Amino acid sequence: MTATDRSLELITAAAQAAADKLAHDVIAYDVSDVLSITDAFLLASAPNDRQVKSIVDEIEERLQKELGAKPVRREGDRESRWILLDYVDIVVHVQHSEERVFYALERLWKDCPEIELPADAKATRGKAAEHAALQAADDGGEAEAGGEWR
Length: 150
What we know:
Elements: H1 5-20, E1 24-30, E2 40-46, H2 49-67, E3 73-75, E4 82-86, E5 90-96, H3 97-103, H4 105-109, H5 119-122, H6 127-144
Parallel strand pairs: 2-5
Antiparallel strand pairs: 1-2, 3-4, 4-5
């Protein structure tokens, strides 16, 4: 069994929306062979809570506007560290970068086929590592300056 055309349509639109809001490491898996409750997972991350919420809001708005889809469930809004949107056909996970590393959902679903995503979404791969390297470089500069803000 493979993901339905509707699931692929939802995943594609959600991935593009996430990329448009500068999400990091957008990836999707066809989980239809191993799960009976959904066809596909979309994973995305962001370096801060506000951006996590912004990505989720954009995905929800875009799927409603373009495809008439509303999530049946939205979880994790309070902390905005890991927000889940359940559209039945697909489940979207948008995580803070730290949660993404800790929970490593890619490791759990790596045996499932990856779903082809739009070029903008593919271009987000490696952005979390880039961001972390820039942060480390910035932190190093502060340490050399005595750790004070200047």
